[in-house]
């Protein structure tokens, strides 16, 4: 845990509660609460960008929230041929799960069903961290058996790769990938006058966050409308709608929305470090305020659980100051 | 880190100079931590006799970013250079004798010249040849290069003699020049990459030594895995292939082998 994440919620309350506005948008004196996750980066390459994109889209499908997908995964960035292990166009994906076991299970399955199956692709680890063998995620280590004994191993510069015969030639796959600690659940909420304004602000934020390394926004288009609270009146549900920010429930439940606040969209971020998430939140919020401050974006706030769920707290006023 | 520089002492006009030197005792793992005086006392075989290393080579030691042995001079009668090399760099400036880098298990060996027979082959009575690391030969190699090789990469910019990759178990051999007879005889697994396959194709067409039956039918092949090698010499050699249609054949079918010989189709191979 780095120093920034140790800030107690009540550090210098006067400082934390001072009013803050960016381009007329109110920034609430609150914090986003994030928690520890296990993470990895994988790189998919292919003969051209189109096949790489297909494989990356498939692999990152149904990977929005650990609540039910068990994995949060998204494209981190597109890579030039000069940036990939085999000199072909590629895409880097970041994946996050609540445990090392979940991460390994999901990555291995998705690699087998979404990358191995996609024409011309190859799969590599995207992190170079030296980690013990039990903290590595099997890629080719498991997938090689698809070769039914005809797979070929190559150890190049100390790294093992597998060449698995498939119908278009060979599927090349690194033996395994490092698993590291990551942070999940960084977030901010865009409170707007109407849905159009919220949508524009969210798109501006995601557009600004996109180039930032080590961070993903795993929800569709980087944004979710179904922000959740912990628990439900139904015992089988571990999460349910965030009624405090549902405009249609204003007046019925304990709403956090005021008059003229009629649509809320949430950006959720997972990252490899506190700094990466803080940088993405800062960039995204500023972009949203700059582009929509005078066009319907009313406030920016963040989701937390009173500091009880996660140890990483991103205070909006601090990261924007 | 240390650089050990061994300069072969002059042999001009010296009739008593050894005809054959066994330098397989010169090992980085042994030299590490030893003084110059201790290293000079290392016994080295010369025409069947044991002599001091210091009698044959002039040793200098310097600080270096990596552990590195450099052997320089007239070395074509010095055999077993870099034998069982397992870490760091071993550079041979000049043409090495036989058994260069035999039994190597790791690190890097660079021969700035030619090398004799049995490069990367088993050392002494051992069963396996090279089992790790990288060998870079700037010239050509003799016969039996990569014999019983088990892992690692052998790159030869020039030509190779007969029995290249014989009884190979795994690993990668990449040759820029022509190759002799008996390529991949007894090969079980591994890869042999040839920029000039004219002789191999000719042998297979004429079924010399049953060559046609040793290889499966060549098929077009996209060697995407070449991109994983970042060695400049590997890239230099494979660039020659990649300008042409690339084929792959499996070898040695006589022993049920699943090795591969990757080569480019040229006008010469098409005609022969």
From TrEMBL, chain A:
Major location category of this protein: cytoplasm
Reaction equations catalysed: N-formylmethanofuran + 5,6,7,8-tetrahydromethanopterin + H(+) = N(5)-formyl-5,6,7,8-tetrahydromethanopterin + methanofuran
Example of a GO cellular component annotation carried by this entry: cytoplasm
Pfam families on file: FTR, FTR_C
EC numbers: 2.3.1.101
InterPro entries: ForMFR_H4MPT_ForTrfase, ForMFR_H4MPT_ForTrfase_C, ForMFR_H4MPT_ForTrfase_fd-like, ForMFR_H4MPT_ForTrfase_N
Any GO BP annotation: formaldehyde catabolic process
One Gene Ontology molecular-function label: formylmethanofuran-tetrahydromethanopterin N-formyltransferase activity
Keywords noted in UniProt: Acyltransferase, Cytoplasm, Hydrolase, One-carbon metabolism, Transferase
Domain annotation Formylmethanofuran: tetrahydromethanopterin formyltransferase Ftr N-terminal: ranges: 20-166
Record pathway: One-carbon metabolism; formaldehyde degradation; formate from formaldehyde (H(4)MPT route): step 4/5
Function description: Catalyzes the transfer of a formyl group from 5-formyl tetrahydromethanopterin (5-formyl-H(4)MPT) to methanofuran (MFR) to produce formylmethanofuran (formyl-MFR) and tetrahydromethanopterin (H(4)MPT).
Oligomeric form and interacting partners: Homotetramer.
Family (UniProt): Belongs to the FTR family.
Annotated NCBIfam families: one_C_fhcD, PRK02114.1
Protein name: Formylmethanofuran--tetrahydromethanopterin formyltransferase
Origin species: Stieleria maiorica
TrEMBL record, chain B:
Keywords recorded for this protein, A-Z: Hydrolase, Transferase
RNA-binding keyword on record: no
Residue stretches in coiled coil: none
InterPro entries xrefs: Glu_synth_asu_C_sf (IPR036485)
Annotated signal peptide: none
Keyword Cell inner membrane attributed: no
GO molecular function: hydrolase activity; oxidoreductase activity; transferase activity
PANTHER family reported in the protein's UniProt record: TUNGSTEN FORMYLMETHANOFURAN DEHYDROGENASE, SUBUNIT C (FWDC), TUNGSTEN-CONTAINING FORMYLMETHANOFURAN DEHYDROGENASE 2 SUBUNIT C
Protein name stated in the entry: Formyltransferase/hydrolase complex Fhc subunit C
Species in which this protein is naturally found: Stieleria maiorica
